[in-house]
Structures are given as structure tokens and as C-alpha cells.
Amino acid sequence: MAVAESENGSVAEQGRGGTGVILIVEAQAERARVMQRALQRHGYRCVVMRTTEEAFFCLATEAISVVIIGSEVVSRSGKKLLEVLQGRFRHVAKLALGPRDCSAHAVTALAAGADDVASLDLPEDELLARVAALLRRNAETTALRKCIGDLTIDIGMHRVWLGSREISLTTKEFELLLYLIQHVNEVVTPEMLARDVWREPNRITPLQSVIYVHLSNLRRKLKQNEQINPIRTIRGVGYQLGDSLFLLPRE
Description:
By secondary structure, the protein is an alpha/beta fold. It is 41% helix and 20% strand.
């Protein structure tokens, strides 16, 4: 395992605007060093990994905001890295580098999940501009995204993922899940759901069966296996979504 390189300061230093670490995945040492120095001169926290296998370890141990994928982006390992980023690290921005004026590379990288593509020999000012743009985009979308372990809900797009699998929910199921996430580990009562999700506080009794049906459907869609119930029923009180359930290994 390669040690993360850091010049002009420790990886633990605070980066520009308090962003997370920028991970450079590049097999060619000199190219990686040039990008690293440019980013660190402008206050970014930055680490370099030579292979995608080392990148996976870094993603699991560091708070990564942007991944810059160099010359291996269209290889099998590069595509695998993009696939993993799309699945378990959807919040991480992805910049793929490749040959200059190669539309085939751009198409391949974007199809694999890259957020942006550029030339391997892009100048420093363009590198900085692209990284800044990706971080801005992340800042705008993070406020509209909530994650609990493997469960991700995109509020703006009304989309939900469990790991890399997208879950199709009805509008009411989505609103119900969002409410449970906002009250994660708390017990919510049918009265709360009637008031805040169905917005019909004066019809609690007639709504109880409707609420139960929607909860049952949502519970079924969120199940990772038959033994684990993602939404607990607290008899006589209400319902609870526990964060620990989505941190367990999937079958």
C-alpha cells in the first residue's frame, strides 16, 4: 500500500473552504506530483494514490470530496473505480483525465459515471477552475441529499438508492421515508405522520390503515434481507427508522 504523499504540509491540514480531501489516482508519478503541488499551493488538501486498489482504501478512510482519475480512467480498473464511486460514494465528485481532443475517451468516462472530463495535460488554471466548479456543485447538491449508511435520498430529484441499487418509490412513500430520515432513531407516532406527512391532523383514525399500508410497502422496498426489518413497529406508540440497519453488510 502506497503512503499518501503530501507536499507543503500534512494531509490533516485544513483545506480551502474547509472542503474534504482531493484524491488523485494517477500511475505516472511526475504528472500526479504536478497536480498535487498545484492544488496544495492553493490551499487544498490533497493525496495521491497510484492504483485504483489504493484509491478504494483511501475512500474508506478519508473524507474525499473530489477524485481526479488519470490515465487509467478507461481501463478496466478505472471503470471499476467509477462504478464504485457511483454506488457507494455518490456524493464524491469525479474528474476524469484522458488524451487531448479524444471524444471517445470523454464518452466512455461520462458513461461510466464521471462528472467532468479534461485533458491529461490540462494547465494549472484549468485544473483549479474545474475542481472549484465540482466543489461548488457538490455544495449545492449536498444540502438536498441525506445519507444513512448505504441509504441515500436525493430530495431535489426525488430519488432513493440503497447502495448502488435505485429504489422506486411513490410520492407518498418518498415523503414518508424523508420524514423518517429526518427523525432517524426517534419514534414517530401515527398522529405525527397524519399531521406532517399526510397533513390531515383531524383524520387520525381513518388514516391509520392508510399509513400502515404505505409503511408496509416502504418497509418491503427497503429490506436488505428477510431477517432485518428497516422500520420497526413500537407497539402502541409508533414507528422507528434506525440508522444502524443501513450500516450492516448487504446480502
